[in-house]
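Session log. Operator J.P. requested a structure for one protein chain; no other inputs attached. Running the standard single-chain path with token output.
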Amino acid sequence: MPENNRFKDALETYICLKKICENARERASNPADKYAQRISLPLSGKKPGDRKREISRCFGTLDFKIDELFFLDMVAYFEQIVFEKIGNASGQIRRIVRERYAKPSPFHRISASFVKGEDDIHSLRNMHHLLENHIPKYLSEQLAAVIEHRNFIAHGGRIGKQSTHSVEDVVRILNEILDYI
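Structure written below.
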């Protein structure tokens, strides 16, 4: 599946989940409807004012989690795509080096081992270092922010920094980087 189709499908799923959450919030807010009970919102024994606050809190948490999971999903797709491209490129480069780096040259037998591959790069940070001088500076900085935010989410806020990029910004940034690659 082409990379922008992966992002497009994931974005469509994200939008669908956000709308489902919004619809469920509206429905659960109707005191006459037993929907809140059916979806197991923790409302038993709550007064009407407390119920509204609890519904708002629960759906705020769901909204936040949907955003975080989508962000992680997008970065994971990006990582898969880039590492697949790195594997293909390093294989081609190794083949060229083996074929063209002739026998009288020093290290000709091991010349292909000088080429980096997926195993040498192995992380988003290393991938960023590989790309940073080969993509525009603004994209490199945005990729660094995306990686920091991914680390922030993945490590429970202990590592990395929170980003202010919107979901649409992240999709655009990652797609633009893939276009450069």
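Operator note: Helices lie at 3-28, 35-38, 48-100, 118-121, 124-131, 137-154, 167-180.
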